[in-house]
Design a protein that fits this description.
Length: 251
């Protein structure tokens, strides 16, 4: 199984997970043109994508999903609450329910419910049907719940949000309302909250860690990297960039 990103952050997200002949896209916050340009870097065509999973309706994740799916006839999977908030009423999709795994090609996908200020936000765990390796994707989460700790335990790969440094957010340029939203219980994960998750889960099998959805105004990759390096048993993180994303990483 492998994972790549076309970009990660509040200006647009799109993540690809591939195993065998199956390619799944998680979210697309980019215009069709931007998406195609970024996809070329990975030498994939839009028609090579087997399914799109939509985590929630915020524009940095959903902005380009409906057009991409309808233009290229790609099936879309999402929760009913997200569909109501993000899609045209007559747009067809496959319904996802938290805790109920679905099989897409050679991957099993487990949707996990997370606390975020959206209608029915989900994050995902991918399980390759042969070989059993598991990869988790967790961004846009306000705090770590015991449910999340249980679901994201003992993974082989993890893409994890490190959204903000609490001090930088407090002193930063965001208006007070937005600071409270980002830092609130249904906002985003701070560096310390994500570090706390890494301390709570068993990371013995974790071969790759990707730090994602890093705020450009309220955080810095060097801070994230330095914090993660303090932990034992956790690999040096790959940084997911807003513009460059990251190239294929094998899990
Ligand atoms: Zn987001
Ligand atoms: Zn969001």
């Amino acid at each position: 199984m492998r994972i790549a990103s076309l970009g990660s952050g509040s200006r647009g997200n799109a993540t690809l997970v591939q195993h065998g002949s199956t390619t799944i896209l998680v979210d697309n916050g980019f215009s069709l043109r931007q998406f195609s340009q970024r996809l070329q870097r990975l030498e994939i065509e839009p028609c090579g994508i087997d399914a799109v999973l939509l985590t929630h309706e915020h524009g940095d994740h959903s902005g380009g999903v409906q057009r991409l799916c309808s233009n290229h006839g790609i099936p879309l999977w999402t929760a009913v609450g997200t569909a109501r908030a993000a899609l045209s009423p007559d747009f067809e999709y496959h319904g996802l329910v938290a805790g109920r795994a679905v099989t897409i090609g050679e991957l099993e996908v487990l949707p996990v419910t997370v606390p975020h200020d959206a209608s029915e936000p989900l994050q995902f765990i991918f399980h390759q049907l042969d070989g059993g390796r598991r990869l988790g994707v967790l961004t846009d989460t306000g705090h770590i719940t015991s449910h999340i700790v249980e679901a994201f335990d003992r993974l082989d790969g993890l893409l994890l949000e490190f959204n903000y440094d609490p001090e930088m957010l407090a002193k930063g340029p965001y208006p007070e309302m937005l600071k409270q939203r980002v830092g609130g219980n249904h906002g985003h994960l701070s560096n310390l909250q994500s570090l706390d998750l890494l301390r709570q889960i068993d990371t013995g099998n974790l071969g790759c860690l990707i730090a994602a959805h890093i705020s450009e105004k309220n955080n810095a990759p060097e801070i994230v990297e330095a914090l993660i390096r303090q932990l034992d048993d956790v690999p040096v993180p790959v940084i997911a960039h807003q513009d460059a994303g990251f190239d294929w990483i094998t899990v």
